[in-house]
Structure formats: structure tokens, C-alpha cells
């Protein structure tokens, strides 16, 4: 069964010489999967036996769900986006989630207003904290953790140490040192998995388990993808086909990829995807610019540009065929709005038709359209999709001849900021902020 289908709608727009890529794709595949490849722990982690890790995450998640009203998760970049993406995609839009509790994120910005209002909102709620940082020294989460550590100690006294869970490297970094010194419980981010490839480790799994997501199903989907996509044959590997289509479009002047979907709960998945592809490919003055649109909202805004503006954009339409909840358009006796022709139709059907209409219109406008179709929006299929994107991204970056696993450009802003904050001496002494 093909869990995910990729295809390009308007093939006539672009000639893809598939055979030109066959060998390089196979060679990159062998490099990625080879024993000497670095930072590729994520490739096999869903296949490996992770029962113990899953059990201990579920144990702590259950403890948190019983003892707390809210889990405050501190992290940024790869230590934030994946968890938030999965949580938003799989938990209800409104109201309480029956299987989980509220999970709130902080440490992705340095807004004093955000921290102040978050602290105020916690007043009558029982709180746990999960601080996530692989390096253990990133400025934004480090500052937020300083605030929340003090808050928890003041509020819970000795019990605070039990309510703070640390997710970080096993050996290195200030956060690891703090955890060891205080006895905070710790989950490990494997050394050979970089931030933006870490969502299927405790980085993403603990927060989403607390939010009520079935992490076993999520990992099952990822495991299926890891197995199916372990195939060097370009014709049979959907992730590699997606990577090649992207590269072919890039070479033909389409420098911007728009990830588009029709379900608003996927907006944060777009953000995770942007980080994955943007940080992995955007280097050495190369790379597709990853952008996203959420439809129908953006059809009434940036849709004009996509249809009719500079021909530099191609669109990747992400579609889940089945969505758990739905609603029927009611019949109206008056029919003042002339909408009775849609009475008794399901909103999800209308949405799916609007997706087809958009794809056809944009294709007519000369926009290349890649279609990614999955059966159902659930933990299993999302796990599959996440793995699919990570594998496609690694392939795509290597086809561009850049390293998918470093991010030298991110360091530039940190250096400038630290200079401006005039803390060079402090930084040298403690290694904070780099
Ligand atoms: O992908 C990456 O490596 C980065 O985006 C990191 O995830 C981000 O900078 C946060 O790093 P850390 O987890 O070390 O705080």
C-alpha cells in the first residue's frame, strides 16, 4: 500500500530527466545509509527498538497529566517546532483535549510581554516544565528557563525538582550540567541527531504525549516510512522523487516552494517544514526558499500573486483525504444566500473540491503543482509524513551539494547579538548563548 502519493500535476511545464538523477540519488542514498555517515541517527531510530524510551516517556507523560493542568515547554527551532506541529495537527481546535492537558510553549522569542502574560496565566494552574535544548546554551530558551526555574522553586519549593524535566544532550552543555547538579529527570537527545531532525525523539515525543497524542502510532507511521523509503531506486522511492522534482524545478528558475494545505491545524507543520528545508538547504548561496500558505485564508490574500505574479513559485499541495471531524451545510427554508445547492454537503467535501479547483487554477496560471496525498490525518500518517520530509530533505540538500546537517548561517546572528549585548566576557567564561 502506498501511504503517500506524490505527483506533478502539470508535467508539461517542466521536463524532468529522471535518468540523469538515477545514479546520483543511489550514490547519495548509499552515503546516507552507510556506516560512515554523520548526524543520521534519525534515519534508523524509528526502526530500532525504542520500547523502553516510549514507555518512560508515557510514564512521565501520565504523571504530568495527573499532577498538572499545564505543561510549559521551553525550546526553540528544532527543540520546539516539531512538537508544536504535531500537537496542533492532532489535538482539537477548541476546548480541552480528552486525552491530554494544555501544553504551552515559551523560549522561542524574547518578548517580555509574552513571558509576563504567560506567568500571569499560570496563577491558578498546576504546572510542570519541560526544558528542551540540545546544546543547552541557546539564549532564548536559556533565558526562559532561568525565569521558570525560579518561578517553580518559589512556587513549589523542594518539589520543583520533580516538576522540571530536562531534554538535552547526554554529556555536553550547561543544561546537562544543571540537570546533573539538581537531579532533574532527564531525557537524552542522541548526539547523532540534529535539532531539526529530532522531532521523533523525546524532544517532540514528551510534549505531544502530554498533549494527548498517541506516540506509539506516530512512531509506527515513521517506522513504516523508514522501511518503505530505504530504497535507492528513484522510481520506487517517493521521498527521493519529491527531492528530484524540487531540484528540477529549482534548476528551471522556480526558487520558491510554497507548501500549501487546506486544514488550518497544519499551519505549524508548515513552520516545522520550513525550518527543516530552510536550514538544511539554504547555504553557499543556494537553496529553494521554503514558504507556506494556509488555504482558504491565503486564497483571499497571497493567492493573487501565486496565480498571476512573478513565475518563481511552485506549490506543494498537502492533502489528507480523511479528517476526523466534519459538519454538514444546513438546508435553509429562506435560501436568502442562494446556498441551498450546497445543503447537506459536508464541509470537508467542499474543502476537497476547493483544493482541486485551486490546483487546476494555479496549474492553468503556469504554477507547477506537486501533490502529496495521505489517507487520513492521524498520528500514524503524520509520523509517516514527518519521516518522508526528513528523508527527502537530506536527499535534496545533497543533490544541491550542501550539507543537510549543519547551520553555519544561524551562528551569524547569535554573534552579532552577543556583541551588542556586550557579554563577550560572560560568554567566554560560561559559554552561554553560542
Ligand atoms: O536545527 C537546529 O539544529 C537548530 O534549529 C536548533 O534546533 C535550535 O537552534 C535550538 O538549538 P538547541 O536545541 O541547542 O537549543
UniProtKB/TrEMBL annotation:
InterPro entries found in the cross-reference section: G6P_Isomerase, Phosphoglucose_isomerase_CS, SIS_dom_sf, SIS_PGI_1, SIS_PGI_2
Pathway: Carbohydrate biosynthesis; gluconeogenesis; Carbohydrate degradation; glycolysis; D-glyceraldehyde 3-phosphate and glycerone phosphate from D-glucose: step 2/4
Catalytic residues (positions): 279 (proton donor), 414
Subcellular location(s) of the protein: Cytoplasm
Enzyme class: isomerase
Main localisation: cytoplasm
Protein family: Belongs to the GPI family.
Name of the protein: Glucose-6-phosphate isomerase
Source organism of this protein record: Solibacillus palustris
Lineage: Bacteria, Bacillati, Bacillota, Bacilli, Bacillales
Amino acid at each position: 500500500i502506498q501511504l503517500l502519493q506524490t505527483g506533478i500535476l502539470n508535467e508539461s511545464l517542466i521536463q524532468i530527466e529522471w535518468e540523469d538523477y538515477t545514479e546520483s540519488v543511489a550514490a547519495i542514498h548509499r552515503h546516507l545509509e552507510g556506516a560512515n555517515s554523520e548526524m543520521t541517527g534519525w534515519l534508523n531510530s524509528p526502526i530500532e527498538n525504542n520500547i523502553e524510551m516510549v514507555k518512560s516517556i508515557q510514564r512521565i507523560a501520565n504523571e504530568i497529566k495527573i499532577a498538572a493542568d499545564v505543561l510549559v515547554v521551553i525550546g526553540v527551532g528544532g527543540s520546539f517546532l516539531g512538537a508544536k506541529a504535531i500537537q496542533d495537527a492532532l489535538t482539537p481546535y477548541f476546548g480541552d483535549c480528552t486525552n491530554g492537558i494544555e501544553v504551552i510553549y515559551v523560549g522561542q522569542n524574547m518578548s517580555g510581554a509574552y513571558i509576563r502574560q504567560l506567568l500571569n496565566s499560570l496563577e491558578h494552574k498546576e504546572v510542570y516544565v519541560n526544558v528542551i535544548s540540545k546544546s543547552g546554551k541557546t539564549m532564548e530558551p536559556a533565558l526562559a528557563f532561568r525565569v521558570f526555574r525560579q518561578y517553580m522553586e518559589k512556587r513549589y519549593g523542594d518539589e520543583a525538582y520533580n516538576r522540571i524535566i530536562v531534554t538535552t544532550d547526554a554529556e555536553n552543555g550547561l543544561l546537562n550540567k544543571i540537570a546533573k547538579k539538581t537531579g532533574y529527570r532527564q531525557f537524552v537527545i542522541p548526539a547523532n541527531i540534529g535539532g531539526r531532525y529530532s522531532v521523533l525523539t523525546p524532544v517532540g515525543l514528551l510534549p505531544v504525549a502530554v498533549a494527548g497524542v498517541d506516540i506509539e502510532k506516530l512512531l509506527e507511521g515513521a517506522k513504516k516510512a523508514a522501511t518503505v523509503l530505504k530504497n535507492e531506486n528513484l522510481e520506487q522511492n517517493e521521498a527521493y522523487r519529491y527531492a528530484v522534482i524540487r531540484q528540477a524545478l529549482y534548476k528551471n528558475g522556480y526558487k520558491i516552494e510554497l507548501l500549501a494545505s487546506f486544514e488550518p491545524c497544519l499551519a505549524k507543520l508548515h513552520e516545522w517544514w520550513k525550518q527543516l528545508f530552510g536550514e538544511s538547504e539554504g547555504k553557499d548561496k543556494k537553496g529553494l526558499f521554503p514558504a507556506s500558505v494556509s488555504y482558504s485564508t491565503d486564497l483571499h490574500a497571497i493567492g493573487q500573486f501565486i496565480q498571476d505574479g512573478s513565475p518563481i513559485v511552485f506549490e506543494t499541495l498537502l492533502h489528507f483525504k480523511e479528517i476526523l471531524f466534519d459538519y454538514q451545510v444546513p438546508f435553509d427554508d429562506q435560501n436568502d444566500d442562494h446556498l441551498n445547492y450546497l445543503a447537506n454537503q459536508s464541509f470537508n467535501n467542499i474543502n476537497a473540491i476547493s483544493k482541486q479547483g485551486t490546483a487546476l487554477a494555479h496549474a492553468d496560471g503556469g504554477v507547477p503543482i506537486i501533490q502529496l496525498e495521505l489517507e487520513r490525518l492521524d498520528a500514524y500518517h503524520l509520523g509517516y509524513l514527518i519521516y518522508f520530509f526528513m528523508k527527502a530533505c537530506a536527499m535534496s540538500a545533497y543533490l544541491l551539494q550542501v550539507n543537510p546537517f549543519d547551520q553555519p548561517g544561524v551562528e551569524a546572528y547569535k554573534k552579532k547579538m552577543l556583541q551588542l549585548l556586550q557579554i563577550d566576557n560572560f560568554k567566554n567564561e560560561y559559554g552561554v548563548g553560542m
